[in-house]
Amino acid sequence: MDRPGRPGRWGELTDPELLLDALLARCAFPPPGTEVTCAVSGGADSLALLVLACRAGCVVTAVHVDHGLRPNGAAEAARVAAVADRLGACFEAVSVEVGAGPNLEARARRARFDVLPPGVLVGHTADDRAETMLLNLLRGTGAAGLAALGPSPRRPLLALRRVDTEAVCEAMGLVAFRDPTNDDPRFRRNRVRGEVLPLLAEVADRDVVPLLVRLGDHLGALDEFVEHAAAQLDPTDVAALRAAPTVVAQAALRRWLRAGADLERHSPDTATIERVLAVARGERRATDVGVGRRVRRSAGRLHLT
Question: Are the beta carbons of 107 and 97 closer than 8 angstroms?
Fold first, then answer.
């Protein structure tokens, strides 16, 4: 039996070519000849993304983003450039400024994606998805947050595990860069990765990542159904809101508030949605919804001002 949390799949595959082909078969790259851009930090996941994208026959450009947070950023970029050259891929290096302060991980991630092109491929694996689900759970998320990092053309490695991307690097003789901040317990994701998931695996006596991924798929399907129903509902019609299932009304209001307040990055929280529903039910006349906006009820309709 495999150790909890550490699937051992490739001990019987000693031929690197067979291993790479077996892993590629589980990926979701576009057809050969498609031009793609891969975000490549130099870690095992992103290097595997680059290797497998090239092996899939895509026309690949690897983009490395230097956040200016580590003194060896230039060396990391040079290493990625060398791998791209070896694989016949194009290479671009981009620098961004991320100052010290709170929420460093989130701000660095935002800065990175601000300079990457739309549709860029990323090396997220099933392990990343499980970690994100647990992080969102700790923040008090709903179904959408638990379905985070679901299947997407931008995430072709999502059926792979971190051990698989490490196997790709080993098969290709690549030395992946390991970010020292990945061991820093100040970052909650690191504690989820290094403490929470291993403990869950120990308690369950099995690898829990596939369980979390299946749950995410299930909740993603449910959320898609709810969002479809919400799109058919007029969120300003008080009577329609009151007649709709609560979860559909909540989704419709969230869509409306995001659009009306131009909230591109964050959805209104559950407490805000509940206050707006209270306005729709006539329990209160108006409520603040943040970002300088207020919802009020008049003549059977909700108004965002």
Answer: no
